[in-house]
Amino acid sequence: MVWTTDRIFNIPYSLVNRSDWSLPTSIDGINTLVFGDATGNMEDMSGRLLGYDALGAEHEDIPNAMAYPVWAADPPPGSIPPVLMAPPGDYNFNVYGRGNLPEPIPRPLYSLLAFGFDGGYLLDQVPATVATHDVMEFRRINGSLVHSELSFRTNDAAKLLNLTVFRSGRPGFDRRTYRILGANVTNLSKVFAATSSDHQSLVVVNRGADTIRYNVQFNNELIDPAVYYDGIHPQLAVTGLVIAPQETHLLTPSNWADVNHATLVVGIEACGNGQCAGGEDHVNCPQDCTTVPCVVPSDGLSITASTTLCPGTYEIADQGQDGVIRLMADDVDLNCQGAKLMGSGTGTGIVGTDRSNVRLRYCQIRDYAVGIGLRGGSAPQIEGCVLENNAQAGVLLLDTSGASLTHNVVTTNVVGVSMNHAINSQLTENLVCGNTVRDVDAISPVGSAGLRNACDSASGWNDVGAAGCTFACTSDDNDQDMVPANVDNCPGTFNPSQRDSDGDRVGDACDCCPHSRPGAAVNVMGCAPFDVGDANGDADITVADWAVMIRCRRGPGIPVPSSCDVADLDADGDVDLRDYAIFQSALCTGH
Q1: What is the gyration radius of the CA atoms in the chain, in angstroms?
Q2: pTM of the predicted model over 0.90
Q3: Measuring CA to CA, which of 195, 231, 243, 262 is 20 to 30 A from 313?
Q4: Could you tell me how far CA 457 lies from the centroid of its own chain?
Q5: Angle at the Cα of 9 from the Cα atoms of 475 and 406, rounded to 5 degrees
Q6: CA pseudo-torsion sign 117, 119, 121, 125
Q7: Are strands 393-398 and 415-420 parallel, antiparallel or unpaired?
Q8: Helix axes of 577-589 and 543-552: crossing angle, nearest 10 degrees
Q9: Structure confidence by residue, pLDDT tens digits, 72-128
Q10: Exposed, middle or buried: residue 45 (CB in 10 Å: 0-12, 13-18, 19+)?
């Protein structure tokens, strides 16, 4: 991956090409780990340093893993490859102060980014001294593919912690960030951060001995660009929160669709009271919560009560052609926890007939005739599932009423979502793309409605206010920041935050003029829309242009006349040393 300066994350260096160290793991855990101004390692629960290099060779008990400063363009000969991939699991990340390692500029701060299947975590501008040893523990809650949490502890006497949790980067959908800012942690602190399983709330947990004061900020950056894009992402900020030892805070914006005008609802739970309440789990409160028992799927598994599957990949053919998993009761919740069912091209992965109020969550189903097939019944819910490469349909709804499909990925099937007389259905923020015959095929979907779905081909289906789906399918994400190129404000630069401080629609990560005045017209570089440096308009950059720069210079914050707009290269309303720097770069590079 390529990492460049992203101001919302305050990464202390521009890290380009192989100058960073990343640790992508499988889909079943953390994808990428980026260390900033520090050294560190990654170890499994047995204390082994694990990984695979870019060629797939296994490295166990790697000596001196991650022992090089991130600004090294290439690792020394014979050292560990710069890209490591770790197997699925729970991990500890250790960050140590740099000690006497060579450093071009003293910067006692580091940042760490780790992201996975449906979001991730960012530690931003964490202080580090020579003696620092910070430990981050990544834990999957009940082994879940999509529900995890990160804890932080330090041996430093005191420091301020900024920790961001972000969720969902699907094209056009909610891109929620949950920020803990300025938490005053000590060497007696242990802080956990996560989201609730439905992603509605930020969970902050204090399992240390000291009271912690902190601030929070909630953003929803992509829910409706047409409405919200005014250069400032909608956000809810609350300061002065206090969490006592053994407390759990469940922090919920009252309205994610309009966080600018939302209020914060704070729920407080106490670990050790014998009740496993909201935000608590077997990781952050083992006194009150136990591991949820899971079931290993098998052909013909009957679901008669709410069931949790054990995560993993299972090759299970539908031998009797009557469904691998069969929903046999109403009001049941099947949580697959990311378990993947792989068939032999026939049969059905999950089947239900005349069932009401069943809920299917986080299931991955591929290589059947039908991934999920529901016939009759009312109010089924399918949420966060992945349906792919099924020979007839990813999801088949026949004569159902009130079905709800939310945040599913349905791709490479013959038909993505097939609805036949499925009345009063609700499809919300599903990615239904790359299916060979049709993405959505609806026959008589009376009373049904869709919101913010993505598809390319739809028959008999229109989202609210759209012809077909709200968004077209987009797989063009060359910079791999989880933002499709058609809405990415830096389409060639990794910038998952999409931060745009000056509101000119060119992200900070690639904005050559990051202080443009509001409303100023800019080019793709974020600068005034003329040839940068060509102040006299002769299509060349020479000393004559330099003369214009000298004539127009007034200094920072001093307005210049309109005749000097051509010298205001960063479009901030003045001509100062920043403009001189841009001109010097243009003179050297020719643009």
Answers
A1: 26
A2: no
A3: 195
A4: 27
A5: 40
A6: positive
A7: parallel
A8: 170
A9: 233 444 443 334 445 556 777 777 775 444 444 444 677 666 655 556 787 877 887
A10: exposed
